[in-house]
Design a protein that fits this description.
Blueprint lengths: L24 E4 L9 H7 L8 H4 L6 E3 L16 E3 L1 H7 L8 H8 L2 E7 L1 H9 L5 H8 L6 E5 L3 H5 L1 H12 L3 E2 L3 E4 L5 E5 L3 H12 L10
Parallel strand pairs: 1-4, 2-3, 4-5, 5-6
Antiparallel strand pairs: 7-8
């Protein structure tokens, strides 16, 4: 199943642990059919959610990094935040002294959340592969800052033995899982593998953004 994904960056106004600026949260996402509506739901806030990314924007700075395949699942015109793609990585860099986008994003963000994280990108991150903007940001991520990930895939893929190994590997890196849930999937199967509710993701992001930034306290 083809991969897709996006990254969003947020910054909390109410937290002054790194100065008076808003906090920044970097979100990544990779999608298969099990999470086909996730780009729209996460970026716009699903209709049933009491919390949405649009509300979160009042308190945080938001940017998005999307893979090429993810473009099929949402309308960029409906997203009010800055969106980056693999193309931007190469257009920004033309000579040796130019900034490298995935490093700039890594420096900019206070928190990174991958929502949803499909089986393909899960395998890449667990193995250290970095072949697009999304996975390059993750590979360069400062592990003293929080990284949250939200698995989403078909139930059969979720139950494959390697999935548990890969999720465990991400946890060994210090990443925090926002567990998938059981529901009827796009393919018609019913079972565990659907991405966590948007309201759950947003509340977890807020929880971590309110914590002191450990990296800023290092001497």
């Amino acid at each position: 199943m083809s991969e897709s994904g996006f990254i969003g960056i947020f910054r909390d106004i109410s937290c002054s642990c790194r100065s008076n600026r808003k906090r920044r949260s970097l979100e990544t996402a990779s999608f298969g059919l099990a999470a086909s509506s996730a780009p729209r739901d996460v970026l716009r806030g699903d209709k049933e959610s009491h919390c949405s990314w649009r509300r979160a924007e009042r308190q945080v700075d938001v940017r998005v990094v999307t893979t090429e395949h993810a473009k099929h699942f949402y309308n960029a015109a409906e997203v009010s935040v800055k969106i980056y793609t693999d193309k931007d990585e190469w257009e920004l860099w033309t000579r040796r002294s130019d900034p490298v986008l995935h490093i700039e994003l890594r420096r900019w963000a206070d928190l990174l959340v991958i929502a949803p994280l499909d089986a393909n990108t899960l395998g890449k991150i667990a193995s250290g592969i970095c072949d697009n903007l999304l996975t390059c940001v993750v590979r360069a991520w400062d592990t003293s800052r929080p990284l949250l990930f939200c698995p989403a895939m078909n139930t059969a893929m979720w139950l494959h033995p390697i999935t548990a190994q890969q999720v465990s590997k991400l946890k060994e890196f210090g990443y925090v899982e926002i567990p998938c849930i059981a529901k009827k999937l796009v393919c018609g199967d019913e079972g565990k593998g659907a991405m966590a509710e948007v309201s759950t993701i947003v509340s977890t992001v807020k929880q971590y953004l309110q914590k002191p930034d450990e990296s800023s306290q290092k001497t």
